[in-house]
């Protein structure tokens, strides 16, 4: 009788465990919805912002990526533009390589404008990955 009761308890624990854990394995955490994604060939990108306190590489409210200077266009991995459900820009995440530590991420709020200067040459060197996302992924820095 003791073995039968012990077996029922272990079977109950196993079924309870499967019912609780199995849905967690199936359900993935909700990420951002990618509204648009593109590879753009540019020769210069200028991001104008009001959010300039304690942010590196910004001078006079402008962050410039080009072939010349400290912010090289070739070090830029991706630009993510975050919008809310009404289409208003909430911020821009810039993922880049700093040349020392590897990949870094910077989030800028209060964006006034983003200026893309198009390159007439279509070469891989000035190609930047740009995504427009919903605000659901802001918690993920990469």
Q: Which percent band covers the strand fraction?
A: 35-45%
Q: Give the domain tally.
A: 1
Please outline the major beta sheet: 7 strands, mixed
> Which structural class do the helices and strands define?
alpha+beta
User: What percent of residues adopt helix (DSSP H or I)?
Assistant: 10-25%
Report the span from N to C terminus.
Answer: 57 Å
The number of distinct helices, counting runs of at least 4 residues, comes to 1
The stretches of 5 or more residues where confidence is low (pLDDT under 50) are none
- The quaternary state of the protein chains shown equals single chain
The total count of strands amounts to: 7
**Average predicted confidence as pLDDT:** 75
The dominant shape is elongated
Order of helices and strands: HEEEEEEE
Radius of gyration: 23 Å
Task: Supply the key terms.
single chain; 142 residues; seven-stranded mixed β-sheet; 7 strands
């Amino acid at each position: 009788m003791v073995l039968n009761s012990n077996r029922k308890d272990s079977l109950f624990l196993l079924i309870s465990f499967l019912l609780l854990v199995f849905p967690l394995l199936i359900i993935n955490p909700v990420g951002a919805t990618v509204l648009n994604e593109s590879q753009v060939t540019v020769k210069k990108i200028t991001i104008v912002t009001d959010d300039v306190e304690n942010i590196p590489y910004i001078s006079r409210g402008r962050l410039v990526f080009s072939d010349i200077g400290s912010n090289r266009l070739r070090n830029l991995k991706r630009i993510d533009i975050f919008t809310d459900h009404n289409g208003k820009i909430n911020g821009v995440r810039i993922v880049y390589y700093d040349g020392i530590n590897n990949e870094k991420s910077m989030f800028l709020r209060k964006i006034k404008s983003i200026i893309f200067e198009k390159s007439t040459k279509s070469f891989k060197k000035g190609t930047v990955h740009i995504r427009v996302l919903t605000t659901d992924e802001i918690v993920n820095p990469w």
